[in-house]
């Protein structure tokens, strides 16, 4: 019986670092680190199904400490931090706030350690990006919800309670082709191909209607934001100049 229980442990212990990083990513940032005991408690609370038996914990505080010490001190000191898209640091509480933990200085031995996950975006940066997406009517509501959900995964932990509410749903263009067009035109620009497009305008019923004279062959150069809209810049051979096309007004894109 006992042999069966311990036989599972080496296999399941391979999840240790993954579970720890998951907790750090979801609950911590530079200003809100967690102690080893707090990390351990969250793991046992959120991942109780990984426990080896009824009434047992998923992970002990000692395991959390040893895993993070090996990960931070041994692994990150060997490999450059810019190899990864995240950073885990060990910090300690000082009068002026949290500072990096010093493994060498004898004065710092025995001090309680805190670990945090540092995301690439600050709270204000995430909020700015979400607000920018929400205020543009040429994103459909589905596009907005999908983009915001992805941005929320990058948020610091002090942003975790925000719930997305579309503040401009009544002006959304639910037939918007913007996101699809960006993907298609981006590929055309990257491969330096030409394209045939149908350029449209919005009629009184807010429906896209082809402009006279289209389909038109174009040579897409780049995509850019300007005055609240997303444009494709294309070279016009006839006028030997660059012409702008609103990306949300383009449909029927074909490479030629």
Q: How is the secondary structure organized here?
A:
Layout: H1 2-12, H2 16-27, E1 34-35, H3 36-46, H4 61-78, E2 87-94, E3 97-100, E4 114-118, H5 123-134, H6 141-152, H7 178-190, E5 195-202, E6 208-210, E7 216-226, E8 229-236, E9 241-246, E10 250-255
Antiparallel strand pairs: 1-4, 2-3, 2-4, 5-6, 5-7, 5-10, 7-8, 8-9
Molecular structure report:
This protein is α+β, with helices and mostly antiparallel strands and 256 residues long. The protein has helices at residues 2-12, 16-27, 36-46, 61-78, 123-134, 141-152, 178-190, and strands spanning 34-35, 87-94, 97-100, 114-118, 195-202, 208-210, 216-226, 229-236, 241-246, 250-255. The strands form two sheets. Strands 5, 6, 7, 8, 9 and 10 form a six-stranded antiparallel β-sheet that branches. α2 (16-27) packs across α3 and α5 packs antiparallel against α6 (141-152). The radius of gyration is 26 Å and the shape is elongated. The chain starts with a helix and ends with a strand. Mean pLDDT is 76; it is low at 1-8 and 160-168.
């Amino acid at each position: 019986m006992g042999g069966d229980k311990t036989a599972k442990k080496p296999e399941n212990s391979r999840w240790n670092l993954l579970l720890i990083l998951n907790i750090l990513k979801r609950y911590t940032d530079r200003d809100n680190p967690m102690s080893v005991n707090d990390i351990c408690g969250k793991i046992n609370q959120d991942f109780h199904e990984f426990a080896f038996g009824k009434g047992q914990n998923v992970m002990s505080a000692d395991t959390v400490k040893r895993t993070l010490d090996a990960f931070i001190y041994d692994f990150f000191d060997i490999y450059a931090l810019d190899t990864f898209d995240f950073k885990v640091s060990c910090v300690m509480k000082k009068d002026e706030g949290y500072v990096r933990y010093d493994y060498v200085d004898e004065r710092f031995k025995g001090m309680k350690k805190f670990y945090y996950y540092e995301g690439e975006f600050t709270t204000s940066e995430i909020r700015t990006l979400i607000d920018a997406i929400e205020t543009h009517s040429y994103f459909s509501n589905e596009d907005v919800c999908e983009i915001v959900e992805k941005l929320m995964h990058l948020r610091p932990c002090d942003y975790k309670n925000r719930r997305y509410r579309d503040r401009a749903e009544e002006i959304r263009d639910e037939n918007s082709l913007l996101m699809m067009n960006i993907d298609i035109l981006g590929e055309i620009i990257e491969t330096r191909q030409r394209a045939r497009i149908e350029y449209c305008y919005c009629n009184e019923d807010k429906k896209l209607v082809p402009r006279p004279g289209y389909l038109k062959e174009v040579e897409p150069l780049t995509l850019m934001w300007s005055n609240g809209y997303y444009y494709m810049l294309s070279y016009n051979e006839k006028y030997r100049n660059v012409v702008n096309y609103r990306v949300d007004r383009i449909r029927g894109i074909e490479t030629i």
